[in-house]
């Protein structure tokens, strides 16, 4: 029987708050994945009488649009716009004509500028559209969080499975190592390591992965300790089934039932960790859109409250949705809560 059986699905659906949160989170995730199509200073499609171009995916030179340089065309350049208009070139633009790094040089107000019809959430201190950066920041944060949660779950399950299944000295040694590792000042170590290496998406992923996997180890260990003494496990050993197959086919499915309830909370923790490093200046490279970076701009520009309020609202909404989803999943997998949301 699958982990998400009909009863558990129905129990989750009965929790209206969790169900609504799941749909809203899924919508936000899909919108963030479509960020390049929703906010971009390059046309999605550019078509003349002979050729169709997709500037967001391919290189379109300035020479191709009437310029003199072999560099990438700047579609915000007035001469480029005039050439496109005079030659009746069809363009399909994104709803928001700003990418995360587009600077509005035509703004008549100093940066950061207030929200208006041109910039719905205003601009940051570099003249970049806040809404565009927010869309790209959500995409990076969610993809980073999902990947970190996935890798952390794999490592945590493997370590917890070995620790709980074999027990004895193996359990004792791994347990002492985990106690020492978990007692280390994680934030200071993360800051030190991130300051020594060149920050990037994958380097930060590796740094945070050093500690994030320990969250699941205790849960998986407890499930394996509880299950390894059951009759069907003993029978499998008597029949000569290998330890790996017993762990993989007979014990792991039961352990995953308890483990899966932690996933939404691990995802929220991953997003907060990345945002914290961005806020402290040890996160993604300068110029990369991030929720923590936007919060830091709000702190540095108290005269522009829309920066801090926007980042705070989005972060609060995102974490609240994940908490509500986690509570719904936890109740759906808890047999004592079967009729709680009826």
What features would you describe in this structure?
With 342 residues, the protein is mainly α. It has two domains: 6-34 and 132-337, MetI-like (MetI-like fold, Orthogonal Bundle); 41-93, no CATH class. Helix content is 62%, strand content 2%. The chain has a three-stranded antiparallel beta sheet with strand order 2-1-3, with no helix packed on it. Strand 1 (45-47) and strand 2 (52-53) form a beta hairpin. Helix 2 (16-33) crosses helix 14 and helix 5 (130-166) packs across helix 12. It is elongated. The chain starts with 5 loop residues before the first helix and ends in a 9-residue tail after the last helix.
Features:
single chain, 342 residues, mainly alpha, MetI-like fold, 2 domains
Radius of gyration: 25 Å
Number of domains: 2
Share of residues in helices? 55-70%
Largest sheet: 3 strands, antiparallel
**What is the level 1 CATH name of the largest domain?**
Mainly Alpha
Beginning-to-end CA distance, first to last residue: 23 Å
Give the strand order, joined by hyphens, for the main sheet. 2-1-3
Shape: elongated
SS content category: mainly alpha
Would you list the SSEs in sequence order as H and E? HHHEEHEHHHHHHHHHH
Give the uncertain stretches in residue-range form.
338-342
Give the strand tally: 3
> Which range does the strand content fall in?
under 5%
Number of helices: 14
For the residues shown, what is the average pLDDT?
A: 86
CATH topology label of the largest domain: MetI-like fold
CATH homology group of the largest domain: MetI-like
Q: What is the annotated CATH architecture of the largest domain?
A: Orthogonal Bundle
